[in-house]
């Protein structure tokens, strides 16, 4: 069964075979699969880019094993030995680069992750909404709690390898190492006394802004849930928090980005915001992440980043959460949420507005209490005057 964009799945195998499959025929561009090995979000050198022209990573853990054609399809195969990857490698991006056209003209494009030992399919994602992109990140393998998971990404770049290079430091066909980056300014921590900062004044005017929510249960809350689990003869469940955003563009377009209803958005076309996935485990190493395309900052009027409780807790009481906004250039911005003392299931985290020169980030950290029968999202909408029409959704 295919995965939706943004969904993730555990990978139990130590070694996997990744197949990037596309249709072939008149007018269909060529496409080549590759992989990028990321440490701290970027490649360390050109050697971290694996492709047909550079088929083996120096560690031997990732290999391009060639291409074969059959029954009107072309398949590129990558071998990834997850157990042999260096500890510094946190993610392996699985990419495809088109030659002679864009991915809107490539039929039947999909990616499969197979157990290298027995060939069993572990994950599959079908790319159905590509248009002008010439390089795609189809999926990624990433570390989680000592194991690995696969996430269906489905995001791309119309400017080809240059877009990939700007985001991660290497192009799809494995260029030389990126130039050294200047030192970042010091981290900015927002407080009640100093709640706002201009990203432009900190150097964050282009590239991708990554918004991360990370949380953990306070020890006493974890103990209560564990005792409840034992009383019910069931395992103690984690808390599932959902990161999301309300957005209003300069042209008046409004909407929501959230896992509920699979509204993951897009980074490279309106609304220029993308939810990377839905972490349903709680207390995860990398939490949940939202990406904002700062190259289109002028397209935004306002963005309200929020979090809701999907399941596992009746309120934010007993949870400790930290919000970090990390622009590709400039200083990271962070703040912690205050202790929650009300029965809140939705919290406005940060409000981003455009002041004419760039985006300004304002710490909200505002807990809201929905009225009986009113959804957390509708409660947030009313509080900030967004004016959207809401219908029930699920994930």
Please give a structural write-up.
The protein is mainly beta. The protein folds into 2 domains: 8-168, Lipoxygenase-1; 188-384, Lipoxygenase-1. Helix content is 8%, strand content 43%. The protein has a 7-stranded mixed beta sheet. A hairpin with a 5-residue loop joins β21 (319-327) and β22. The longest helix has 13 residues, at 219-231. It is globular and about 60 Å long. It starts with 7 loop residues before the first strand and ends in an 11-residue tail after the last helix. Residues 171-184, 219-237 and 279-285 have low confidence and may be disordered.
Return the CATH class of the largest domain: Mainly Beta
- Our Rg estimate from Cα atoms comes to 21 Å
> Strands of the largest sheet, in order across it?
12-22-21-14-19-18-17
Task: Label the structural class.
Answer: mainly beta
Number of helices: 3
- What are the segments in which pLDDT stays under 50 over at least 5 consecutive residues? 171-184, 219-237, 279-285
Fraction of helical residues = under 10%
Question: What is the assigned CATH homologous superfamily of the largest domain?
Answer: sav2460 like domains
The number of domains is: 2
Biggest pleated-sheet summary:
7 strands, mixed
Number of strands: 24
CATH domain fold name of the largest domain: Lipoxygenase-1
Mean pLDDT rating: 84
Strand content: 35-45%
Elements, N to C (H/E): EEEEEEEEEEEHEEEHEEEEEEEEEEH
Overall spatial form: globular
Label the CATH architecture of the largest domain: Sandwich
What distance separates the N and C termini?
Answer: 16 Å
């Amino acid at each position: 069964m295919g995965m939706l964009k943004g969904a993730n799945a555990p990978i139990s195998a130590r070694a996997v075979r990744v197949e990037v499959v596309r249709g072939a025929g008149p007018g269909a561009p060529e496409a080549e699969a590759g992989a990028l090995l990321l440490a701290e979000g970027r490649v360390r050198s050109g050697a971290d880019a694996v492709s047909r022209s550079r088929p083996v990573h120096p560690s031997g853990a990732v290999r391009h094993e060639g291409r074969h054609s059959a029954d009107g399809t072309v398949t590129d195969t990558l071998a990834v030995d997850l157990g042999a990857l260096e500890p510094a490698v946190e993610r392996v991006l699985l990419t495809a680069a088109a030659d002679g056209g864009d991915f809107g003209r490539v039929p039947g494009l999909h990616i499969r992750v197979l157990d290298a030992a027995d060939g069993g399919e572990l994950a599959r994602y079908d790319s159905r909404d590509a248009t002008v992109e010439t390089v795609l990140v189809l999926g990624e393998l990433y570390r989680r709690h000592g194991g690995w998971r696969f996430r269906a990404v489905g995001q791309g770049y119309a400017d080809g390898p240059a877009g990939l290079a700007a985001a991660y430091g290497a192009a799809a066909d494995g260029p030389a190492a990126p130039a050294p980056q200047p030192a970042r300014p010091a981290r900015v921590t927002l407080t009640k006394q100093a709640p706002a900062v201009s990203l432009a004044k900190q150097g964050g005017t282009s590239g991708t802004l990554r918004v991360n929510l990370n949380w953990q249960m306070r020890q006493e809350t974890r103990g209560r849930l564990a005792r409840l689990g034992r009383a019910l003869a069931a395992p103690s469940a984690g808390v599932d928090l959902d990161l999301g955003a309300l957005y209003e563009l300069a042209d008046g377009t409004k909407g929501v980005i959230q896992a509920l209803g699979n509204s993951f958005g897009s980074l490279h076309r309106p609304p220029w915001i993308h939810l990377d996935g839905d972490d349903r485990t709680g207390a995860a190493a990398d939490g949940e992440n939202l990406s904002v395309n700062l190259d289109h900052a002028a397209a935004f009027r306002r963005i309200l980043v929020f979090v809701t409780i999907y399941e596992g807790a009746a309120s934010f009481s007993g949870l400790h959460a930290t919000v970090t906004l990390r622009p590709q250039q400039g200083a990271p911005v962070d703040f912690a949420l205050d202790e929650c003392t009300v029965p809140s299931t939705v919290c406005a985290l940060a409000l981003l507005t455009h002041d004419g020169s760039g985006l300004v980030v304002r710490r909200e950290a505002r807990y809201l209490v929905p009225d009986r029968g009113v959804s957390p999202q509708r409660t947030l909408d009313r509080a900030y005057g967004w004016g959207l029409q809401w219908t029930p959704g699920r994930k």
